[in-house]
Specification:
This protein has 778 residues and is mainly β. Among the domains are: 90 residues, Cadherins (Immunoglobulin-like, Sandwich), CATH 2.60.40.60; 101 residues, Sandwich (Immunoglobulin-like); 109 residues, Cadherins (Immunoglobulin-like, Sandwich), CATH 2.60.40.60; 87 residues, Immunoglobulin-like, CATH 2.60.40; 114 residues, Immunoglobulin-like. It has 6 helices and 45 strands. The strands form 14 sheets. Strands 38, 40, 43, 44 and 45 form a 5-stranded mixed β-sheet that branches. A 4-stranded mixed β-sheet has the order 2-9-8-5. The N and C termini lie far apart (163 Å). The relative contact order is 0.04. The N terminus and C terminus are likely disordered.
Amino acid sequence: MKDLILLFSLVLVPTLAYKESLQTKLNFSNSTTHKRHKRDWIWNYMHITEEISLPLPHYVGKIISSVRNKNAKYVLEGEYANTIFKVDEETGDVYAFERLDREKKSEYELTALIIDKITNQRMEAPSTFVIKVHDINDNVPIFVQKVFNGSVPEMSSVGTSVTKVTAVDADDPTIADHAKVIYQVIEGENYFTVDESGVISTATANLDREAQPTYKILVKAKESLGNTGREASIATVFITLLDINDNFPTFKKESFHFKVPENTPIKGEVGRLEVVDIDEPQNRNTTYNFVRGYFQDTFKIITIPSTNEGIIKPQKPLNYEEIKEYKFNVEATDPTVIPRYYKPGGNKSIASITIEVLDVDEPPVFSQPLYIFKVEENNPQKNKQIGTVSARDPDAANRAIRYIPRISSPPGNYIKISDTGMVFLNQALDRETSAWYNITIRAVELADKNTLSDKESQAHIHIQVIDVNDNAPELTYPEEPRVCENAEPGQVVTRISATDKDEMLPGVYFKYSLATEDSNFTLSDNHDNTANVTVKYGQFNRELAKTHFLTVMISDNSKPALTSTNTLPISICKCNERGEVTFCEASAKIVGVSIQALVAIFVCILTIIVITLLLFLRKRHKKDLNVLRNNVAEIHEQLVTYDEEGGGEMDTTSYDVSVLNSARKNTMKPPRLNLEPALSPYAQIQKPTGSGHSGTGEMEIMIEVKKDEADNDGDLLPYDTLHIYGYEGAESIAESLSSLESGSSDSDIDYDFLNDWGPRFKMLAELYGSEPTIDFVY
């Protein structure tokens, strides 16, 4: 068979020839002109069968060219040339030197060339050809994966698709039956089937998840030609059944017995009913219903979705003294179960329930949780009964009850309650303080005659205070009422209104009037509990009064009617021609202040004044101390020089020195400062001791002494020059003219005689001729 295929593959199919005629070819071969003509290759597509069992090499085919030259040779080029495929240089026969596998590579593309052996030049243009490998169906189908998974709802009908398996045959699919795959279930065929496309379907309609949730089947893939000699491919398929709601719940036991105290709160838990539902949790929808008994109004059963349990809860209080035991039947069912999947055993499960009520010492029970009483405000009758409360002991002991007020809003001791529950007022109530008084009371059982037990309950009393007319209406002051001093009669100044602390019921009406009629203002009622203040005569005089205080009386129409007197300040303002205010003092708004507030304000003001005075005195005292401590006189004597001073004691021509001496003898002394020498360190001049020194030497010694004193005294100011000289020289006839050595004041001496001393003393006479404001030292 393979030999026949090989021979068939060597047959040349379409043949290419020269486009020129055969005569032209013969002329070309015999011609000496060597004229070149176009030629073509003469060869075909080549075919070879895969996996040939004959010895290598295997003949593939022949390439032929029209070139007739003894130096021509055939050459192959391409990816697999000279490796897998080789050509005979002389004949053009092509051989395969390896066994070929079509599943690895089905076609090979090569290039054929004819080359001159001597020059190694191409004698023709290269040509590309293809070698095709023929399939021999040498592969079996293989599954794309070893394990497949699928799912299908339980109880599905026959033929319901589950999943799909896939196997692949590597052989050539273009050849009939070479790549066709046939699937077969070899394990689990009673439950599932597979078609030729690999789709797995149910083979029965009774697949019950609760009986078997998963299935494992084996599927075989084989060739359609039935090559039984080779192994087939096998895959494993796991199929899961999806749950549907096809089962009813059943009670875990036939009867349930619960014990519960009688003080169990409403909607508290009495007990739990447990059922079994073999469906998945998402398909469990158990409901519980009362079947027998008359206690549907006493209990209700609530289903918990997560556990499918039924919780029994009371809908009203349990009372041991009235009913000690409850018995009834309950059914459990699932209304969402699909009807066509009903199974034997019925669609309901019934259980008997017994609830035993246990006795508990309970607190007192009020007849009602809230009591509302009404009372008129300011009722002078103390200890007046306003109502009754009632509580009882629900137990068989029926103990006595004591009532105790607990919390009040607003805070206060407003009521007292007798042992029989009668409620009395302790004080009059004011509606303006609070329209409602809310009081929480306790009812406490007595353990014995005078001892309170720990059993108690609470109730609320709301007292509504009915209003009586006990407050007069009060003026609501407008914002800075003012009027121009040139206002015309009838001009509206402001609108006034009033408020009443009493209850403003429909029909309450305020009446406005003035306390006196001799005012320049009048009131006009607006019939909406407001009134307009208007100018009566006009032409106000600011010089007489810048503010008018209008006394307004306001009364209501209640019984009895009440009236209040109010003062409304109105500022008189300067206005321009257009009536616009140009200048106006702020009006004094009358505000009522209590005596206690006035006393508090006065005490605050007095305290502030006393504190301010004490601070001022303390500060002044500190200032005086600082002056006494730091008052070191800083005296700057000024040395007044003259251009002409004469020749000293030796110069007797310029002036007569004897005049000075006579003046001294006649108690006329030079002027001196009004300061004590001790006030300035420069004023205390120590004359140098010793005689016989000249005036110049004595001055030098004095200056050195003063310099030493200035250098060694750290408290002195850092003066750079010495301005004071208290020593005039020992040989001066007039002796010292300085006032620093004077121990007495000369303020009463008349210095007019200096004017007679000549022009040289003119400046001195001017200085001492009038009362000086600053003392000088000369």
